[in-house]
Amino acid sequence: MYNEPCQKFSNLPESSKDYDVKIKVGEKPNIKEFKVHYKILSAKSDYFKAALSSRWARRENGLIIFDKPNISPPVFEILINYIYTGIFSNNNEVSLFDIFIAADEIGLFEISLQIKKLLRNEALGYFKQGKFLKTLEFYEEIFKHIPYNDEDQKSASSWDFSNHRCETEEINELSKVLCKNTMLTSLNLSNIELGSINVNVNFITSFFKRSGVKTLTDALCRNSTLTSLNLYNNNLGYEGGKAFAVVLCKNSTLKDLNLFYNNLGCDGGRALADALCKNSTLTSLDLSWNEIRSEGGKALANALCKNSTLTSLNLYNNYLGSEGGKALANALYKNSTLTSLNLYSNKLGIEEGKALADALCKNCTLKELNLALNDIRSEGGKALADALCENSVLTSLNLYCNNIGSEGGKALADALCKNFTLKDLNLCNNNLRTEGAKALAAALCKNSTLTSLNLNSNLIRSEGGKTLANALCKNTMLTSLDLGSNDLGLGGGKALANALCKNTTLTSLDLRSNDLGPEGGKALADALCKNTALVFLNLGHNKLGSEGGKAIADALCENSTLTSLNLFTNNLGSEVGKALANALCKNSALTSLNLGAGWLSPSSNSIGSEGGMALANALCKNTALTFLNLGTNNLESEGGKALADALCKNTTLTCLNLGMNNLGSEGGKALASALCKNTTLTSLNLENNNLGSEEGKTLADVLSKNTTLKDLDIHGNNIDFKLISNNHYIEIIQ
User: Fold this and answer.
1) In whole angstroms, what is the distance from residue 244 CA to residue 213 CA?
2) Candidates 3.40.109.10, 3.30.710.10, 3.40.47.40, 1.10.10.60; correct CATH number of 1-153?
3) Is 498 left (phi over 0), alpha (psi -120 to 50) or beta?
4) Mean pLDDT, range 403-432, rounded to an integer
5) Among 717, 709, 715, CA closest to 691
6) pLDDT, tens digit, for every residue of 433-449?
7) Residue environment code for 543-563, b if the CB has 16+ CB neighbours within 10 A, otherwise e
8) Domain BTB spans what residues (predicted)?
9) CATH 3.80.10.10 in the chain, residues?
10) pLDDT in tens, 9-22
């Protein structure tokens, strides 16, 4: 159909000149006659082309007469105006739903699309105003009358208030929504200071107040639709823990509850444990960082012996100690539903490691076990290795920072030769050394199930690296290998580069902080030209220098599979910046590039303003990159201005880090202005850039217009006022 506006006929509906169609619209007593033109209507609408030529219409005195009683005159007038002028105008006098239904019937799909957008914006407007009941009622109307997509469904059913300081009125309104049992299924209230909110119960006198926690929990006891609730970092305290325990006893739909970092204490932990003995719907519970200690741990262990629905329990950093650890180990003998248990950093020790190992020999449901930072040492490691020889269900084991040593490493390596289910093994920071690495390398030549292995920070050195490289030439299952901070040196780097030329399964390789040097960089660059499997490569802090950096940049011009490259802190220089810019103009696969400084190292890549300008020009052409870190590169104002210009043109970048670049006033203002035009960037870091109050005012003005930015970091600047946005859902770090 011809879709251009009929501008030369724009006045015809009013003048009714040379009309050949009469359309009677509406029902008595509200009927209106429209005098229109067959050619125009049939050119814009297949519906009218068919309807005015068929038995639906009749002829009288040379005119086509058509009745349309199911559309009201005001709605039809809007549609006719659009057909003749190409302009959709409503002025909020007619229901958008009525217009959509009519436009959809007549086949004016351009109007249908515009109305969908208007309706979504209207729903979002109610939400931002804190009118949550109205929001849901509006979504119900949308779903009732209009075809909706997954995004609409998510907007209506999943609400995220994280990091937003909710006012008392909003908590009241939210509680009403929960009491109404609407389509809301997921609610994120993380970090909203819920524990300190008081809610007015008597709205006339505002005299009697109660806690926001009590208001919310009362509503949850009546709710029957919510399945996921995130309350991370709300300082609920033990009373809050008890209140949510009551919810678990009464609510029969909640499946996922996150109470991470809420100071619940032993009492809160015990109350929730008692609730788990009665609850039959919760499947996932996160109690990380709550100091529930051994008493809370024992209570939860007892609950696991009775509960038959919980599948995931996170007890990270809770000071469970020996008693709590042993109690949970004993519970694993009886529990037959838990599939994931996180005991990271709980001061368990060797004996508790052995107890858990014994439990693994008999438990047949647990698939994921995290024992990181528990000082189980070599003996605990050996016990777990023996358990792996018998266990046939565990797929993931995290033993980070347990000092299991080379002997524990050897025992685990032997277990990998016999175990056929483990897929993910984390042995980071365990003092495995070269001997432990060699044993694990030999195991990789035989094992056919492990897909992820983390050996970061184990002093495996060059020899260990070479044996692992040899294993990669034979192993066909491993997809992720972390060898960061292992003093591999040039020898280990070259061996691994050679292995990449042969290996066809590894997709992720972390070689950060291994002193590879320029030659190691060149060897790996050569491998990238041949390897077609690797998608993630971390070469940060490896002293690659200009030569190694240029080689990597050249490789990117040929490589078509790598999507993420980390080159932080490599003293690359401006010429490498230019070379990488050239690569970005040719490479269409890379989505993430890190050229910043490592968090443990203040040194940079010294890309400079010239390198920054080259990268900015590349961003005007590149359509793949979504993440770019240029932090600590001395870009200065010229680099900042060039990148600002690029943001006005680029439509794919979502995250940009320009922290510590001495951008100054000009660079800051340019970037702020760019945010008025850019519609894709969601995260921007401008920390420590010598921005002043003037730049702050420009940013404040921009934030009232930009609707896509979600995270803005401006801390460490000279802005002497607190930056506030009318968009409550942007997080500003200042």
Assistant:
1) 9
2) 3.30.710.10
3) alpha
4) 98
5) 717
6) 999 999 999 999 999 99
7) bbbbbbbbbbbbbbeebeebb
8) 19-92
9) 161-340, 568-734
10) 444 455 556 889 99
Q: What token pair was written down for 50?
A: 């068919």
Residues 465, 493 contacting (CB under 8 angstroms): yes
Summarised one tens digit per residue, pLDDT across range 37-47 is 999 998 989 99
pTM of the model: 0.88
Which two structure tokens, joined as six digits, stand for 570? 């490599």
Taking only the tens place, the pLDDT of each residue in 584-611 is: 999 999 999 999 986 545 568 999 999 9
Q: What is the CATH number of domain 568-734?
A: 3.80.10.10
**φ/ψ bin of 61: left (φ > 0), alpha (ψ from -120 to 50), beta (otherwise):** left
Residue 457, φ and ψ in degrees, nearest 5: 55, 60
Least confident of 500-514, 634-648, 706-720: 706-720
**H-run or E-run covering 537:** strand 536-538
Rounded Cα gap, residues 38 and 612, in angstroms:
60
Spatial contact of 672 and 694, defined as CB atoms under 8 Å apart: no
Distance CA 416, CA 427 (A): 13
Classified as helix, coil or strand, 511 is coil
What average pLDDT does this structure show over 329-351?
97
Measured distance CA(625)–CA(654) in Å, rounded: 9
Q: In whole angstroms, what is the distance from residue 647 CA to residue 669 CA? A: 13
What is the chain's Cα-based Rg?
32
- Interhelix angle 636-649/608-619, nearest 10 degrees: 0
Residues 6 or more apart in contact with residue 84 via CB below 8 angstroms: 5, 6, 9, 10, 12, 13, 40
Q: In angstroms, rounded to a whole number, what is the distance separating the alpha carbons of residues 404 and 355?
A: 16
* Residue the block writes with tokens 């007892």: 302
Residue positions counted in the chain? 734
Contact 347, 374 (CB under 8 A): yes
Instruction: Give me the amino acid identity at 719.
Output: I
Give the list of residues 6+ apart from residue 472 with CB closer than 8 angstroms, or none: 444, 478, 481, 496, 499, 500, 502, 503, 506
Decide if 662 contacts 685 (C-beta within 8 A). no
One DSSP character per residue, 310-327 reads: --EEE--S---HHHHHHH
From the candidate CATH numbers 3.30.559.30, 3.20.20.100, 3.80.10.10, 3.30.450.40, the one assigned to the domain spanning 161-340: 3.80.10.10
